[in-house]
UniProtKB/TrEMBL annotation:
<dbReference type="InterPro" id="IPR020846">
    <property type="entry name" value="MFS_dom"/>
</dbReference>
<feature type="transmembrane region" description="Helical">
    <location>
        <begin position="196"/>
        <end position="219"/>
    </location>
</feature>
<keyword id="KW-0472">Membrane</keyword>
<protein>
    <submittedName>
        <fullName>Major facilitator superfamily domain-containing protein</fullName>
    </submittedName>
</protein>
<feature type="transmembrane region" description="Helical">
    <location>
        <begin position="113"/>
        <end position="132"/>
    </location>
</feature>
<feature type="transmembrane region" description="Helical">
    <location>
        <begin position="379"/>
        <end position="400"/>
    </location>
</feature>
<dbReference type="GO" id="GO:0005886">
    <property type="term" value="C:plasma membrane"/>
</dbReference>
<dbReference type="InterPro" id="IPR011701">
    <property type="entry name" value="MFS"/>
</dbReference>
<dbReference type="GO" id="GO:0022857">
    <property type="term" value="F:transmembrane transporter activity"/>
</dbReference>
<feature type="transmembrane region" description="Helical">
    <location>
        <begin position="356"/>
        <end position="373"/>
    </location>
</feature>
<feature type="transmembrane region" description="Helical">
    <location>
        <begin position="285"/>
        <end position="304"/>
    </location>
</feature>
<feature type="transmembrane region" description="Helical">
    <location>
        <begin position="316"/>
        <end position="335"/>
    </location>
</feature>
<feature type="transmembrane region" description="Helical">
    <location>
        <begin position="239"/>
        <end position="264"/>
    </location>
</feature>
<keyword id="KW-0812">Transmembrane</keyword>
<feature type="transmembrane region" description="Helical">
    <location>
        <begin position="24"/>
        <end position="41"/>
    </location>
</feature>
<dbReference type="Pfam" id="PF07690">
    <property type="entry name" value="MFS_1"/>
</dbReference>
<feature type="domain" description="Major facilitator superfamily (MFS) profile">
    <location>
        <begin position="1"/>
        <end position="409"/>
    </location>
</feature>
Length: 410
């Protein structure tokens, strides 16, 4: 599932940057809704696996699209706040999913999970299809070029057709064609995301973000079994134990965007240099750097308090989970913002590449964490996770030191 979740956005991201956000959103939602209905009606295990892969392909594309829309309409000085908000769904999902899934499966059966997903996504999809405007600058530039076809929402179409009580400048069909002809004709390149894996400093940021998210997945994947074996919690209580993780994520998104935007404006006002010479890497990593140094500490404490004989208080474990979630989410969000800063003309493509790296490393972490715990124990495994997070420090230092030079070289 995570492999498909990583591969699908490489297609939808490039498609969204060339064909527009609206067609990409409509495609992703239709795939997701139909696959959820099929999953709710399915009783064959092989079919469940295939449909789950298709379902993840539909949902994963929206992660890149949300960041792309934020990049379309928000300036760099405000990008931190809005990018943090758009990342909430992606980050909160591992925390809220077990809670909602546990309640639904206990009282209504596992099929109710997919019915809930189908209905909730349909409720969201209808107003999106009716009212969401096209924001892709390849299609509408700054909004001066009217969208057409699938890129035009029904609301925009209705406004253009209804009579007006006062003169309104509505472009004629010939004018629209002339404006559309001014746009560069760009081929959809599904594999354009792969070229970014070898671009500096982008590749180092992608690797750092992937390692951070893999560490986050290693914690979340191992947590249920630890809570069950150590504290004897039920499935419902295990789901409720993810609330501190969600709270840490929510708090980080709230504070992170404000601080990142403040630091960006401070550096712009201080340096007052040409935008091409502005070291956006230092503006973003000036906040992420200290957090990166602190992030391994709660993971290390989580590892060292793992019981040999007597378990630690549950409150202590949940407090550490909250702190881990907060620090890792801060790092993840800031690196997402930096990636969009560096590739603001193709935000969906860069976020799709980010999703590819994140999902493959996350899948590896999820697959390896339980065998590692069985072989080396909880302490050694999560000490290793702390070392992985610490390894991000030299990678980000290189970006901070030489990022601008690498960008100028192209």
């Amino acid at each position: 599932m995570q492999i498909c979740q990583g591969l699908a956005p490489t297609l939808t991201g490039s498609f969204a940057d060339q064909a527009g956000r609206r067609p990409a959103y409509i495609l992703c939602f239709l795939i997701y809704i139909i696959s959820n209905i099929a999953l709710a009606l399915q009783h064959s295990y092989p079919a469940l696996l295939v449909l789950r892969a298709i379902q993840s392909s539909g949902s994963s594309g929206t992660v890149a699209l949300a960041s792309a829309v934020a990049a379309d309409v928000i300036t760099s000085a405000e990008r931190g706040t809005y990018m943090s908000i758009t990342s909430l769904g992606n980050i909160l999902a591992p925390s809220l999913g077990p809670i909602l899934g546990g309640v639904l499966s206990k009282y209504l059966g596992w099929q109710s999970i997919f019915w809930f997903l189908a209905m909730s996504s349909t409720i969201f999809f209808i107003p999106l299809a009716l009212f969401f405007p096209e924001t892709c600058r390849t299609i509408v530039r700054d909004g001066s070029i009217p969208a057409s076809g699938w890129n035009r929402s029904i609301l925009n179409w209705w406004i253009s057709k209804r009579p007006h009580t006062r003169p309104v400048l509505i472009p004629s069909a010939s004018t629209e064609l002339a404006l559309q002809a001014q746009l560069p004709k760009r081929m959809i390149k599904p594999l354009s995301t792969l070229s970014l894996l070898f671009h500096l400093p982008t590749s180092l940021i992608l690797l750092s973000n992937g390692l951070i998210f893999a560490s986050y997945y290693a914690i979340t994947a191992g947590l249920p079994s630890q809570l069950r074996s150590i504290y004897g919690l039920s499935d419902l209580n295990i789901g409720l134990s993810f609330i501190p993780m969600g709270a840490g994520t929510l708090l980080s998104a709230t504070l992170n965007g404000i601080i990142v935007d403040w630091n960006y404006r401070r550096m712009v006002a201080k340096n007052r240099q040409d935008i091409e010479d502005f070291e956006v890497e230092k503006a973003r990593l000036g906040v992420a750097g200290p957090v990166t140094l602190l992030a391994p500490i709660p993971i290390l404490l989580y590892a060292l308090t793992a019981p040999a004989t007597n378990p630690p208080p549950l409150a202590l474990t949940l407090t550490l989970i909250f702190t881990i979630s907060f620090t890792l989410t801060v790092m993840y969000n800031i690196l997402n913002i930096l990636l969009v800063d560096l590739h603001d003309t193709t935000p969906a493509t860069i976020m799709a590449t980010n999703n590819l790296v994140r999902c493959f490393l996350g899948a590896a972490a999820t697959a390896l964490v339980h065998p590692c715990i069985q072989r080396w124990g909880v302490r050694a495994t999560y000490c290793g996770v702390a070392i992985v997070v610490l390894s991000v420090v030299p990678l980000l230092w290189m970006v901070w030191k030489w990022g601008l030079q690498w960008r100028k070289r192209g």
